[in-house]
Amino acid sequence: MKKRLAHGLKLMLVLSLVMSLLSACGAPSVQDTYPLESVSGSGNTTSYVYRAADRTVPEVAQELSEQRKPDQISAENTERMFLVYQDQYYHLQQDPNKAEDTLVEVDSKEYVRQNYDSSFLQGYLTATLIGNLFDSFGGSGSGKYRGYTNKDTYKPSEGSYRTPTSSDKKVAPPITVDRKGSITRRGSDKDSSVGSGGGLFSRNKEQSKGTIDRNKSSGGLGGLFDSPKSSYKKPKTRVGGGRIMRRR
What we know:
The protein has a domain at 31-178. Helix content is 24%, strand content 19%. The protein is built from six helices and ten strands, in the order H-E-E-E-H-E-E-E-E-H-H-H-H-E-E-E. The chain has helices spanning 2-25, 57-67, 109-115, 118-121, 127-133, 166-171; strands spanning 31-33, 36-42, 45-52, 72-73, 80-84, 88-94, 102-108, 176-178, 182-184, 191-193. The strands form three sheets. A six-stranded antiparallel β-sheet has the order 2-3-7-6-5-4. A two-stranded antiparallel sheet has the order 1-8. Strands 9-10 form a two-stranded antiparallel sheet. Strand 5 and strand 6 (88-94) form a beta hairpin. The two termini are 61 Å apart. Keywords: Signal.
């Protein structure tokens, strides 16, 4: 009895660990990575900028927060929003040169400390978070940076933005979002969206259905249990004149 109880506890522990790992990873059915556009800084002081084409700032914020719940998110805004995680700050900005796109700036905590203007962040983040962030600077940031869209006017004090290299793309933090694809049923010109009850696991009611004829003489069982037809003739056999010898 004790062995069974111990085995059950171990199994529950393993299952809970697996579920926690899956929930942390998110594991979306379709992953779409935003292309990396610019890189600044090095070491633990880095900033990576991605481009979300044809996506508004609130749409990108919702997609990212659904995949990974942030510790803090700023109020919905069409031009600028912040998502704060433990060691990363996601600064979402509407591209001033292409309003239909959103620029996703992923800054390390140290990059924010050394470059951002704390008075600028007060319009988006709580006072407690800003105080904890800039505690080593006496409660205020040392830079005047206000984000990638203002980098020409408010330049970062640590490094400058450049085109990412192949090595930059390997170490850059990935951004994945959940998107809905579609599956076209073979033999049909209709398209069904995944997750809407259609697609791979649904059937078209308008398609023709086949039929199976059963012999009514056997009560609808058909096949092996049907009685032979009247036209059926038994095969002829010949009885030989041989004999059977019994083994002694």
